[in-house]
Amino acid sequence: MLRTHTCGELRMNHVNSEITLCGWVQRSREMGGLTFIDLRDRYGITQLVFNQDVSPALCSEARKLGREFVVKARGKVAERSNKNPKMPTGDVEILVEELTVLNISKTPPFTIEDNTDGGEELRMKYRYLDLRRQVNKKNLELRHRLSFETRNYLDAQNFIDIETPYLIKSTPEGARDFVVPSRMNPGQFYALPQSPQTFKQLLMVAGFDRYYQIVRCFRDEDLRADRQPEFTQIDCEMSFVTQEDILNTFEGLARHLFRKVLNLETGDFPRMSYTDAMMLYGCDKPDIRFGMTFSDVTLLMKGKGFKVADDAELIAGIRADGCAEYSRKQLDELTDYVKRPQVGATGLLYIRYAADGSIKSSVDKFYTADDLAGILKQCGAAPGDLVMILAGQTEKTQKALCELRLEMGRRLGLMKAGEFKPLWVTDFPLLEWDEETKRFYAKHHPFTSPKPEDIALLDTDPGLVRANAYDLVINGVEIGGGSIRIHNKELQHKMFQVLGFTEEDAQNQFGFLMNAFEYGAPPHGGIAFGFDRWSMIFGGGDSIRDFIAFPKNNSGRDVMIDSPSEIKEEQLKELNIRLANQLK
RNA sequence: GGACUGGUAGUUCAGCUGGUUAGAAUGCCGCCCUGUCACGGCGGAGGUCGCGAGUUCGAGUCUCGUCCAGUCCGCCA
Asked: What is the mean pLDDT of residues A146-166?
C-alpha cells in the first residue's frame, strides 16, 4: 500500500507517529508562511500543514497543488494548536516531510462538497466526480449495507442465491421489453427480463424451495424520479408456503434491515386490505405516517339539489385538524391544486368548523346547518377543523382526494423524515378491466393465484376475484409485492382463458412453464422488492438516482457515456437490421 | 403521447412594463497574509443570454417553432 492510514482515522493517540496518507486535495488555505491542505479520501479528511520556516521548498511545492490533485504525504501526526471540533480528525494534523504528486487534475466543473454548486445535469455528466462527494458515497455505502444484510438474513433462512439469464424471451404482457437482436438467429430477438418471474417458478419446480437473487431487471417504460429503465430487485420465491408464511418471512427481512442498517426497532407491520386502502386513502400504497382518512359523505350530500353532488358516484372528504382558519387564498391554492390536470378534480368543496362552533361552507346555498353538521359529524370534525370534500366518479375522486391528502400532509408537516411506517396491503384484485382493449389484464401477473373462495367468480364476475397478492408499502412508497402462484395446470389454463389467451398463445408464450407444471410443481409463492427504492427510503432520499452509482436520466440516457448511441452500418448488417429511415 | 417549470460567466442564479457598456455570488488566475478550516484583503480574466425564425427603430426580455433538463399524468403484468 502506498499509505499507512486513511484520511478518516487519525486521532490524538496517533500523535508523533510517522504516517503516510494518500488522497485528493479538497481545498488549500494559504496564510503567508503557513499552508493548510485538506486531504480527502473515502474515509474522511485530514489536514496537512506546511511551514515556510521549516521547509520553504516543501511549502512552495504545496502551493502549486490544485483542487483534486492526487497526493501522497508522509509526515508526523501532531496535535493542533487550534482544534476543529467539527471534524472527526480535527484534533490532529500532519506535519508533512515528503510530498508526492501522484497525479494532477483539471479544475473540476463543480465543487466536490455536500452543498455543491453543480446542477443535476452537470453532475451526471461527471458522475465519477459527483461520487467523490460525501453524500453520494454515504448513499452507496447504505446500499451496500442493505444488500449485505439482505444476504445475511436470507442465507440464515436457508435461501440460496441462483442466477437466472438476462437474454430471455419477449412476451407481450406487462411492461414493454428491451430487446436484443440475435446475430446467430437472423430476424430473431432476445428480450431482457422485466423480472426473473418465470425462472424463479421453474426453480421451485426444480426443488430449490428457497431462492433469492439481488438482480437487475429491465423495463422499457417512461421514467420517473423512482423509476429507471434498469433497476434492481431483491427477488425471492418459496415452496410449500401459505401467504402467511411469506408475509412473516419477509416482514422478518424488513425488520432485520431496519435493525441492522438503521438501528430501529419496528413492531408488527399493520395489514390492510386493498379495498380498505382504496376507501380510506384512495390508493393502494397509503402513507400511514398520518391519518386524515377519507369519510364517505355520498348519502349525506346527494339529493339536496346540488348538481355536482347529485351527479357524483362518490363524495368523500378529509378532515384537516385545526385548519378552520385557512384563508380564502389558501383554499384557492388548494382548489387550484386539485384542479391541475394531473390531479383531475373539477373543484373543491370545504366546510369550516370555526373554533366558536359556527359553520361556514362553500355550499351554504344547498345545505342547511343541520346537513352540514351531519357531514362534519361523519368526518369526525371538532370545532377548529376544516373539512375538504371532492365529488365525482369513484376512481377519479379517490385519486384526487388521495393527492389532496398528501398535499395537506406536506403542508402540515405530517410526513416526518426519519419516521418509518411499513404496511402490508393485501387481497389485491386478480384482474383489471381495460376499456381500450375490452379485456381483463392480470393486475400482478398471469401466474397469481386467486383466493380459493373466489375461484367460482372467474366465470361469473372476474373483476371481483381477489388474489393472494400483497404489497409492502413504507411511507407511501411501494417497496415490494408478490403473490402465491398458481401451481395447478387446470387453474392456469382457466386464468389464460379469462385473460383472453388462445390455447396457442398460451402455449407459445408460456408453454415451457405450463409443461413444467405437469411434472409435480410444488405450491409456491414469492415476493420481489425494489432494492433502489428501499435504499432511497432508508437513506431519506427522494430520487433513486441518488442511490445508483451510474443512473440514467429522465429520457433513459446516460449522459456520462452518452448512450444510447447509433451503431455502425456493419454492425447493423451483421445483425440483419435495417433502420426504418433507411427504407425511405 | 400530454401538462407544467427551467435553459444568461467554469458553476449557481438575478436581470421589472422591450431601451445606454448584461450583474451578483462562487470558482479560476495574480499579489499580500504564520493557526486557517466556507480563512481574510486587494486586483484581474471570464458571456454565441440553448438553437432557429418572427414582431419591433431596438429583443436576454414579446410571439411561434425546435432541442435539452427536471417534476408529474398516461404508461410501469
From this structure: 98
